[in-house]
């Protein structure tokens, strides 16, 4: 048998071994008391036959029968019987008759011996001298009845032990799974961005409390490291943006000087580059803000179909300016819990991407649908274009921060558009996927509908 | 305008002050909260520009002190981070506007001017109820209607909101960023020119009967409705 690995099979194996032990103990106890009773009865018939034969001369039939009668008249011998037979097996006297000959020594009697009023008993056959044999019989029947009570007692005793162990195992299991569940819930909350979640530590102590404390300690450490990283990005924001702002200001002042009139274009270009860098910082900080998860607190119910419709209408004119056609597909009214600002930004980002990275003449289609998936209902925002698309191998790169595809490197944009959309989708516990629209690119944001 | 700039980064403060002076404003620079509060006690400023992250006393603390002592001068808060939660914090502390560093001087000037002019208007007001009249343009945002002279304008919701915002601030330049914030209600700036496109559409409808263009484009800054 392979060693059980999972907690469940371990528990089952433990219970199996336990049941086996209980059954064996029960059986052994039963057998031991049974043997003790038989020994007691055997001692009694031995004593009784002694009482008959020790007072008489061997072979004296009349004396033996007389003695038998004396003894059977005594008060506590109602459940014993005697039988005297000669060498040929003929009945000579006593108060019972046996249907079959018994060997010398002890034997067990049952119903098949057809002795009136006896269903179970023990017999002792002894040589009474002169070819005579004395058979002494005692009932074990009343003891058998007691057996039933004893069996009941065993069932109750061992049964309650089994029940206690089963209940204990179940309780222990529930306790363990509650603790594990708590760890799982905490881990899930952390994954969702709630870095403040901790496991409650049992003040009574114990292995679980120790583990919970260690786990919490680890989370504190991670949170501390993340704070440091976030401080670094705040520092970058502060310490890099301020000098950039200074630089931009200087350029603006230079541009305003009369002697810089001939350099206006160059200075303008330099200022544009400053702006591009600043936009990159702004986007990085925005992603950090979204990933922090704090904005979940501001989630409100909104109609995604209406939101996409509104933005689509607004962006139609913008698309027309660059020679693109924006088509508003079916925008089903789907209510979700979300951040209107971030969802708007994500959608505008996707449309802007399509406008920026596809040639004029390309059609961009927007749609919102409600999809029933295995994991529950979801709202799907789709932005599809029939442009050149993205090669399958490049899609992962497109989602990576600062990951810009080669032909577009000369284009404006900082490579943070899709990562931001991805972060917004994840904030809503949803996903972002890029697929081949054959031809073109289909971008889908799938957001779960809570309780739907 | 007579402006107070509270900023601890000497270099940035000097550049920004110089830029604002180039736009014909008087600028006093204070490197920290105490200096700023003393300066405001001493001199009547038209508006203050307040950095959020300052040594010792941060921007919101200074602002609270200021408001508690009954000073109502318009304050624009400057932040290097620009998270929406911080923006809400700043506005709750009593800031009139909140911009992310680095704001071009022209943008900052436009916001300050709009704030100062906004203060002057509260007493006079133009038009009855929520209806705004500027020249021959009438906008009623609650009824979703607008007219040029006698001619009703067929505007979509966004165009109407845009016209209303321009009309409320007639004579003041509104930057693209300000319009994005106030008309679209976005806390981010799209990279495409959605403001320009919307202004163009609005202009077409305003000038459909061959009227003159009521919207002034201030190059590199924003738009203004002639008053």
UniProtKB/TrEMBL annotation, chain A:
For the keyword Transmembrane helix, the answer is: yes
Taken from the UniProt entry, a GO cellular component term is: plasma membrane
Q: Does the keyword DNA damage apply?
A: no
SUPFAM superfamilies, per database record: ATPase domain of HSP90 chaperone/DNA topoisomerase II/histidine kinase (SSF55874), Homodimeric domain of signal transducing histidine kinase (SSF47384)
Where does the record place the HAMP domain?
Answer: 174-227
Keywords, in A-Z order: ATP-binding, Kinase, Membrane, Nucleotide-binding, Phosphoprotein, Transferase, Transmembrane, Transmembrane helix, Two-component regulatory system
The main enzyme category here is transferase
* CDD domains in the cross-refs: HisKA
Primary location class: membrane
Q: Which reaction does it catalyse?
A: ATP + protein L-histidine = ADP + protein N-phospho-L-histidine
Transmembrane domains' residue ranges: 12-30, 153-176
Q: Which locations, inside or outside the cell, does it occupy?
A: Membrane
Supply one GO molecular-function term.
Answer: ATP binding
> What is the E.C. number?
2.7.13.3
Histidine kinase domain location, by residue?
Answer: 235-451
Pfam families assigned: HATPase_c (PF02518)
Can you say what this protein is called?
Answer: histidine kinase
UniProt organism field: Sphingomonas lycopersici
């Amino acid at each position: 048998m392979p060693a059980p690995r999972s907690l469940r099979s371990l528990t089952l194996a433990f219970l199996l071994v336990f049941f086996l032990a209980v059954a064996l103990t029960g059986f052994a106890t039963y057998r031991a008391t049974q043997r003790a009773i038989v020994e007691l009865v055997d001692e009694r018939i031995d004593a009784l036959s002694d009482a008959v034969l020790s007072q008489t001369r061997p072979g004296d039939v009349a004396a033996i029968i007389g003695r038998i009668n004396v003894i059977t008249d005594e008060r506590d011998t109602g459940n014993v019987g005697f039988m005297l037979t000669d060498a040929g097996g003929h009945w000579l006297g006593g108060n019972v008759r046996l249907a079959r000959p018994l060997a010398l020594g002890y034997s067990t009697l049952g119903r098949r011996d057809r002795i009136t009023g006896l269903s179970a008993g023990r017999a002792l056959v002894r040589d009474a001298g002169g070819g005579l044999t004395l058979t002494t019989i005692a009932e074990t029947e009343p003891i058998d009845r007691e057996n039933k009570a004893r069996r009941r007692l065993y069932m109750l005793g061992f049964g309650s032990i089994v029940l206690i162990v089963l209940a204990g195992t179940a309780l222990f299991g529930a306790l363990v799974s509650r603790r594990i569940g708590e760890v799982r819930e905490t881990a899930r909350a952390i994954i969702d961005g709630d870095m403040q979640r901790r496991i409650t530590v049992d003040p009574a102590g114990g292995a679980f409390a120790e583990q919970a404390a260690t786990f919490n300690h680890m989370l504190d450490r991670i949170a501390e490291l993340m704070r440091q990283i976030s401080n670094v990005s705040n520092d970058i924001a502060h310490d890099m943006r301020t000098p950039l702002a200074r630089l931009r200001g200087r350029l603006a002042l230079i541009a305003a000087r009369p002697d810089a009139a001939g350099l206006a274009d160059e200075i303008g270009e330099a200022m544009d580059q400053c702006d591009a860098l600043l936009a990159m910082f702004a986007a990085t900080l925005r992603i950090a803000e979204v990933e922090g998860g704090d904005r979940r607190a501001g989630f409100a119910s909104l109609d995604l179909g209406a939101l996409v419709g509104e933005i689509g209408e607004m962006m139609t004119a913008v698309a027309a300016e660059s020679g693109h056609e924006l088509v508003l597909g079916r925008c089903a009214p789907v209510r979700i819990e979300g951040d209107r600002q971030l969802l708007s930004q994500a959608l505008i980002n996707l449309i802007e991407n399509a406008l920026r990275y596809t040639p004029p003449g390309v059609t961009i289609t927007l749609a919102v649908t409600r999809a029933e998936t295995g994991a529950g209902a979801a709202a799907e925002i789709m932005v599809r274009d029939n442009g050149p698309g993205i090669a399958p191998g490049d899609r992962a790169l497109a989602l990576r921060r600062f990951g810009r595809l080669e032909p577009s490197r000369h284009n404006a944009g900082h490579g943070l558009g899709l990562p931001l959309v991805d972060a917004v989708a994840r904030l809503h516990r949803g996903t972002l996927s890029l697929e081949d629209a054959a031809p073109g690119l289909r971008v889908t944001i799938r957001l779960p509908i809570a309780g739907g | 305008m007579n402006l107070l700039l509270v900023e601890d980064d000497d270099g940035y403060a000097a550049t920004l002050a110089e830029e604002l002076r180039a736009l014909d404003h008087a600028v006093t620079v204070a490197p920290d909260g105490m200096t700023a509060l003393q300066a405001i006690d001493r001199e009547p400023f038209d508006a203050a520009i307040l950095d959020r992250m300052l040594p010792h006393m941060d921007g919101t603390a200074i602002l609270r002190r200021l408001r508690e002592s009954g000073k109502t001068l318009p304050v624009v808060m400057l932040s290097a981070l620009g998270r929406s939660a911080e923006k809400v914090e700043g506005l709750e502390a009593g800031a009139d506007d909140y911009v992310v560093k680095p704001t071009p001087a022209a943008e900052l000037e436009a916001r300050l001017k709009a704030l100062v002019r906004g203060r002057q208007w509260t007493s006079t007001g133009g038009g009855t109820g929520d209806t705004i009249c500027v020249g021959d343009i009438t906008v009623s945002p609650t009824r979703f209607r607008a007219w040029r002279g006698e001619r009703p304008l067929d505007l979509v919701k966004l165009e109407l909101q845009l016209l209303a915002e321009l009309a409320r601030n007639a004579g003041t330049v509104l930057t693209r960023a300000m319009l994005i914030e106030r008309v679209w209600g976005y806390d981010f700036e799209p990279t495409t020119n959605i403001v320009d496109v919307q202004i163009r559409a609005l202009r077409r409808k305003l000038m459909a009967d061959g009227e003159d263009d009521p919207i002034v484009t201030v190059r590199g800054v924003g738009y203004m409705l002639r008053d």
